[in-house]
Amino acid sequence: MALTKEQLPQLERMCEALYTSSNADERKQAEHMLKVFSTNPEYATQCQMILQNSTSPYAQLLASSSLVRLVTDHFLPANVKTDIRGYVTNYLASHGASLMPFVVTSLVQLLCRVVKLGWFENEGHRECPQDVRKFLEQESPVHVYLGLRILCQLVAEMNTPCPGRSLTQHRKTAVSFRDTALCDIFTWAISCLASVTGAALPSAIASANASASENGGTGGRPSTPPGGVSPPSPAGNAAHAPRPNQPPLRPQARSQDEKEKMLDQTLNLALKCLSYDFVGTCLDESSEDLGTIQVPTSWRPYLEDPQTMVLFIDTYAATQPPLSNCALECLVRIASVRRSLFSGEAERTKFLSRLLMGTRDILRNQTGLAEHENYHEFCRLLGRLKTNYQLSELVGLDSYAEWISRVHEFTISSLVGWRWAQGSIFYLLGLWSRLVSSAPYLKSTSPSLLENYVPLIYQAYVTSRVESVQAVYDGSVGEDEDLLEIEDSLSDQMEALPYLCRFKYEQSAEFLCSMMDPTMAEYFNAVESLKKTMEASASGISTPPAGLLDANALKAIDLLEGRLTWFVHIISAVVRGRLSSGGSSATAEMQETVDGDLSARCFRILNLVDSTTPDHGEAAAAAAAAAAIGSPQAASAAATASAAAAAAERAASGPYSRVYNKSRQRLELALLSFFQSFRKVYIGESAMHSSRVYMRLNERLGLHDHLVVLGVMVRKVYFNLRVYRTHAEIIDQTLKLFQDLASGYMSGKQLHRLDAVHYVLCSHTESSFPFLRERGNLRSRTTFYHTLGRLLFMDDATSRFRAFVLPIHNTLCELASVPDVTLRDTTECRRRMIGLSRDLRGLAQATSSRKTYTMVYEWLYPKHTQLFLRALSIWTADTDLAHPILKLFNELALNKTQRITFDASSPGGILLFREISKVVCLYGEYVCQEAVVNAAAQAASAQANAGADIPPAPGTPEPGGGPSGGGGSSRGDVYTLRYKGIWISLMMLTRCLGGGYVNFGVFDLYGDPSLNDAVRWALRMCLSIPVGDLHGYKKLSRAHYSLLEQLCHSHPSSIINTDVETFSHLFRSLEMGLRSLEVSISSQCASALDSLAAFCFNANSSMVQSQQAAAAAAQQAAAIAQANAGSAEAAAAAAAAAAVAANGSLGIGMPSARDAEAAQLMAKHLRMNPQLVHDALKALYEIVLFEECSNQWSLSRPMLSLALLDVEAFERVQHELVSQGQGTANNPERAQRLRTCFTRLMHDVSPSLEPKNRDRFTQNLTVVRLDFQSRT
Fold first, then answer.
1. What is the pLDDT of residue 675?
2. In the list 38, 597, 629, 1162, which could disulfide-bond 955, CB 3.0-4.6 Å?
3. pLDDT for 438-464, tens place per residue?
């Protein structure tokens, strides 16, 4: 419907309501009415009419944003794109000064999007940068500013993949833009920057302008051949020539405000040019590691020009943030250009010298470093110097000595002023660590001077970190600024610190010990006083004796523990750095000795820490152990141990307990980090058991070998799991250490020899490990029992397994005896069922062999599996319990490492599947109930409405919204209520179907409905998922398509023997899955379609061939009989006999009656929905021919089978792609090339699905695809 000028005021009111109304219903109604502008390509002219006639900024925003959507999401003819580009350019030139900023932004985006999408369609699009340059030549600052904005957006648009276009198409456009326009735009940015700041123009640009003026029309680059752009050089390094007859750019600002706005856009433009993805590496701009910038060779004269760097340095010095730090960021990029860009060693040395002197002068004068933004970017700039250049090159420069001295002073001041520079220390430490790591390879005669500065920097770092603890506890620094709380920054710094410490290792270790030893001594005295106080508290004394700890003393302990935490973190990092340190054998021995000295101090801290932590869990375990002894002293021993447990419990909850203290918990985490570092270096497969580190540990603490140290670690694990039961992070890190120790082959074997480990295997219940009772540790239960299972199954002893599972067995039997009503209403029963499900899943994960899996399976089935089925039927709606039970059975169904292998006479596989089938059917019946589906939908809708925001434009998806348009919380609710259980159930069935341990033919043979029921409910669960949600949740999508692939491959009749709506829905979902960005899903969908098509084609072909062979044999037999006998009766009898013989002989290749019926039903489904095969084939050919696909082989398999299944659909697809495909509708040459490719595709390919014929088709497809993409 055409929009008239009379209707324009009404539309403007609707647009204003859409963007400004506070009424959600009014906004929703306006969006519904206006959505057509962004979804219907016929409304493109209406959008132009709105821009031409409306003065409302909201109507202009609607028109421009809708055009962006139309251009992006729909195919528009080339002439329409050309008209839009010309119209928008003229519109901005004539109306840009009066438009609202958000309208200008939208129009600029539209212009740049049109130029990018039509880059190869029209020469005018490729001339857009030159058209925009005319804005820069104007005297009006508004037009200059607008031109700079357009160029900034154009560079960003060309550097960003566009929705709906393949990566190949994006890179092709980006490379062409890089080779034809980007260098020009960069020189324009430099020229504008020089003009605005009043600086001298770089001589390379000035001479190029002069040459262009002198040469007139002969100085330009070669003309572009018809039909496309000139081919780029292999590395994008074609020689750059200036455009002819172009006046120099000399924009002038009339006010300070205009000058700052021009500077902002000019610097942003230069930064975007330097940040361009030149070679397709897709660098993440948010990443701190920029790597090397692969600038084309055509940029060489401008980057080698000394004035270019001087221009950015002077701009930095003359401006304030954000302009100054943007100039510094440009310098960071310039410092990162590839080394091979320069014409020779001399030019590279001059470039580095200018960079070094520039940073030296900034440091000497402290230019701009009082601003935090400048400070941070300057640290990044310093960090880039060693990344791109060798130490020998730096040392050889005359300014190096002063520069390294200035950088040393700057680093020291940064470390001391850690409150100011805590986010920038990482770059400085990275610089010094790279300098140090290069020192052993330095062959220059000039001194590096690192030995003078590195130890001082290391000492300043240690001192400042320790002093920061005092600042935090004094209250002069907030807890959010506590350096120990900033984990990312802490881990980054610990990566660089070992290089500084090990540079002068003995000197550094001596300094560390000189600071650490007094702190440890002071802590030891405080600990002794604390122990006396705790003993008094445990004995029931209400008032502690005089001289014991008060509140100030407890704070002093907090301070000491904070300092010790830093020491332990530093030692942990230094010990871990042994893996990357080299040197001679003498140096290695020295480093191991020092490692032993430092490690001994950490082990001493461990002893001090544990001595002040009351372990009521240990006392309770002692009581239980005493009660189990059959001696006469058992009762008294148990009573004594129980009393000790009660006293320890009182002390742990008393005012002097350190368990819940933050400083103690951070110290515990640091000790766990140290154990991990020590394990990696000195325990395990690559450890040196005769290392000197153990000699020093033996001298100091009596830890004479790795086995004793392992015992210490296991006791620490045991201790933490009992004591810190409510601290989730300590529990997680402790279990990770335990798991890492058990996962290694050698360390696991050594662990298995320890008595402490055997004790844990004998007493692993909640009474021994209280953390198992805590709700926040439910996930940790699986990890805990997985690790115990690894240790348990190392010797495959049946007796030990029985002893291990006995407590679990007793608990299961106890719960099995509870009636359903009591089981449902008792909170304790629910809690225990959740824990047992997670425990058994971890135990099942640890089974990696046939023997271990069989032990677990035979213990669980059939007695205990019935309990879990009962629990699932009672608590199906309780996701906290249902999901762990589903995951338990999902783990039991997984045949990893062929662990599920039953004897030939064993029905184990069939019985296991029957249990899995019961679980799938039980959960499927619940989750597919209408009430459950509606409840999940209502929860999602409620969350979506609560968190809805005003849409930026009609039809534009909301940030973070899912298929339903809501935010993450609504998606999370739906996922928890339905989708999580569904994907676990689907994956469970998939694992059974593909596990290879079930003979599924038995179920039909004996009339067992288990298979059919499980498949039926699984498909019902699949059908209950909206298509948008299916592709919005990765785990759900993977499980869905894995099941369909398995069913289509092994049980195609289960898919085909459904009603036509169900079959069409599943077929459509496979077609959609082909376009998934996940290669695995795309390949699975292709395999599923191939299996279905091949099943139907082979069945139909076999039946047709058998019928034809039988008829031919009958005719031949009749002719022979008539010729020999001469009687018609004899001939007829012979023909009948021949037909019977033919049918019998060809029966080997005939499909079964069930398969034949399924094939006929599938043919019927396809006749009722002829678009199914057509759309699947079209999707496949569009992906393979027009997009970047890494799974071409997988996608090629269904292309042949579907084409043979429906020849007519294949011919229609060819015609549509040739006449209406991407880039062929208005390009006859490209269309003819595609038509030729289709002819070559089927060359020498017969109508069969034999392996050789399939391979021939795949080879043809590969050749055709490469040829088509290389010439378009």
1. 95
2. 38
3. 888 888 778 899 999 999 999 999 999
pTM over 0.90: no
With beta carbons less than 8 A apart as the criterion, state whether 500 and 436 touch. Answer: yes
In sequence order, the β-bridge partners of residue 293 are 337
Q: State the number of CA atoms in the 13 A half-sphere of 369 facing the CB.
A: 20
573-621: per-residue pLDDT in tens? 999 988 776 655 668 888 889 999 999 999 999 988 887 665 444 444 4
140: left (phi over 0), alpha (psi -120 to 50) or beta: beta
Q: Is the dihedral of CA 615, 617, 623, 626 positive or negative?
A: negative
Question: What is the per-residue pLDDT across 67-101, written as a single tens digit (0 to 9) for each?
Answer: 999 998 887 888 888 899 999 999 999 988 889 99
How far apart are the C-alpha atoms of 403 and 356, rounded to whole Å? 7
1225 pLDDT higher than 80: no
pLDDT digits (tens, 9 = 90+) for 1178-1222: 999 988 888 778 889 999 999 999 999 999 999 999 988 888 665
CB–CB of 1209/1173 below 8 Å? yes
Over residues 229-258, mean pLDDT: 57
Instruction: Read off the pLDDT of each residue in 245-251 and give the average, rounded to a whole number.
Output: 68
Query: In which residue are the tokens 């690790």 written?
Result: 787
Do 1272 and 1233 touch, CB atoms closer than 8 A? Answer: yes
For residue 858, how many other CB atoms are within 10 A of its CB?
Answer: 10
Specify the residue for token string 């191939």: 1090
Residue 1216's H or E segment, with its range, is helix 1207-1220
The separation between the first and the last C-alpha atoms of the chain, rounded to the nearest angstrom, is: 38
Structure confidence at residue 1129 (pLDDT):
62
| Least confident among 38-42, 283-287, 438-442 | 283-287
Cα 1230 from Cα 1220, distance rounded (Å): 11
Can you tell me the distance from the alpha carbon of 102 to that of 106, in angstroms, rounded to the nearest whole number? 6
Q: What is the mean pLDDT of residues 223-244?
A: 39
Beta bridge mates, 331: none
CB atoms under 10 Å from CB of 1133, counted, come to: 15
Per the CB < 8 A criterion, the answer to whether 693 and 596 are in contact is yes
Q: Which two tokens stand for residue 1174?
A: 């057509």
Query: What residues does 337 pair with on adjacent strands?
Result: 293
> Running DSSP on this structure, what letter comes out for residue 242?
P
* Cα–Cα distance measured from residue 385 to residue 388, given in angstroms and rounded to the nearest whole number: 6
- Report, as an integer, the average pLDDT of 237-243: 46
Q: How far apart are CA 335 and CA 352, in angstroms?
A: 8
Neighbours of 915 (CB within 10 A): 21
> Concatenated DSSP letters for 771-785?
GGG-GGGHHHHHHHH
- Show the tokens assigned to 366: 């402290």
The answer to whether residue 964 scores a pLDDT higher than 50 is no
Query: Which residues are CB-neighbours of 1144 under 8 A, at least 6 positions away?
Result: none
Burial (0-12, 13-18, 19+ Cβ within 10 Å), 800? middle
**Torsion angles phi and psi, residue 269, rounded to 5:** -65, -45
**Tokens 């932590």 sit at which residue?**
613
How many C-beta atoms lie closer than 10 Å to residue 374's C-beta?
22
The single-letter code of the amino acid at 1182 is: E
Compute the average pLDDT of residues 506-522: 94
Whether residue 361 is predicted with pLDDT greater than 70 in this model: the reply is yes
User: Nearest Cα to 1176, choosing from 1087, 1080, 1266?
Assistant: 1087
The span from the CA of 860 to the CA of 808, in Å, is: 11
Q: Which of 900, 765, 771 is nearest to 836 (CA)?
A: 765
Which residue do the tokens 């596990």 mark?
A: 995
**Which residue has 């076999």 as its token pair?**
1102
- State the maximum Cα–Cα separation within the chain, in Å, rounded to a whole number: 133
Cβ proximity of 3 and 50 under 8 Å: yes
Segment holding 1141, helix H or strand E: helix 1128-1146
